[in-house]
Model the fold of this input.
Amino acid sequence: MSTKLVPTPGQTVGPFYGYALPFEKDNELLPPGFPGSIRLQGTVYDGAGHTIPDAILEIWQPDADGNVVQRTGSLVRDGYTFTGWGRGAVGNSGVFTFTTVNPGPTKPGAAPFISVALFARGLTNRLFTRIYLPEDTEALANDPLLSSLDPERRKTLIARRDPDGGLTWDIRLQGGDETVFLDFQ
Amino acid sequence: MPEDINAELESEELVPPAEPKAAHQPLDKAIESQADLSAEINAMGEAYRRALKDGAQPETQPRLDYPPYRSSILRHPTKSLQHADPETIELFSPAFGHQDVHALESDLTIQHNGEPLGERIIVSGKVLDGDGRPVAGQLVEIWQANSSGRYIHKRDQHPAPIDPNFTGIGRCITGPDGSYRFITIKPGAYPWKNHLNAWRPAHIHFSLFGAEFTQRIITQMYFPGDQLFPLDPIYQTIVDQDARDRLVATYDHSLTEPEWALGYNWDIVLTGPKRTWTENEAYGDAGDEE
Done:
């Protein structure tokens, strides 16, 4: 093994990603209405409580059975292949939407979650966070990350279940209910 | 600092605000000079260099909280990032392959009927992980302004000409040795509204995936010797000079092709890895045959 190299710094995604990063069906990990599909939606807020119109998110998750998918084809969605990865820019009102499936637990008893990378104009480097499903309260209580957090902060990582079976999860970059962002180093 | 920074910033960068807001800030209050900004940038740089002398660890990433980049003021987390050990899904990365990206997408000069204007360049290098292993078979995306400093994006209102033969987006899949190569046009510097007479140094946006989602990064590549470096609050969000230098490509005459294009080399090192690798994965055998 060679010696450790110093990582290249990140930079803001800037305001002009809109003609470059989005692609057709980027936020549809499965087509809307596909059996088992759900809507995942939320709003991105800044420190003044205003919605952010120029953020872009990526989600990365296991399939409904908790398997990590290693299939290509995300950029050319065929309507059937679930790759586990999607990209969604917010609209003018700061709202993002994905069509996906509920992730399964990757091992027995693990709390299922969706991994998130957030980019925005004004955000100097990407932020990582997680979206946990709300149902398995025992798994949530045993989760190493969640159990390391104060109850108030912990809530920011757990999605709400919508009446239609979808998930709602908002991002707050600052403030009392600031979303927990992660450092993996 | 103005009280309603948000309303002011959004109008400054010509981004339509999400909701109608009371425009109670007089326009001229938004005008800050480069001298004002440079004083802030230099003060933060001085403080950092003093801290280094006193034994602080060198910083390697941009500061999330960097007030000279005005748009960051309301958009940086105020609480420390929470340490987490990456779990299963985070120790893998989405897979991309030649099904996703056509080989010609790496040439930004052939996307229209005619040749784009400007200085044709080759930008090439390797994507490596922190152990120096090549990141093979992964997606690299780039986007940039044209040679006049104009983005095709509808929100770019810089009165420089659009080039009908240049869109400014490219993609490729890294080779077995982690290599990538783009043919493009050298982008121009362009003005923005952070402060009065703010100009971004010429740059190309790069989006990179590693073998693990925790290695995901979006960054910007710059060109050597740019006189705008000390003035630019985005480049300066990285306070460490060695770290900033890692975003600057090297002119490489061995990449230059005679009577065709100038060559620049830029290698990218991702964080990690955190996962224990098998030999096959390290050479990217998996993932491309779906």
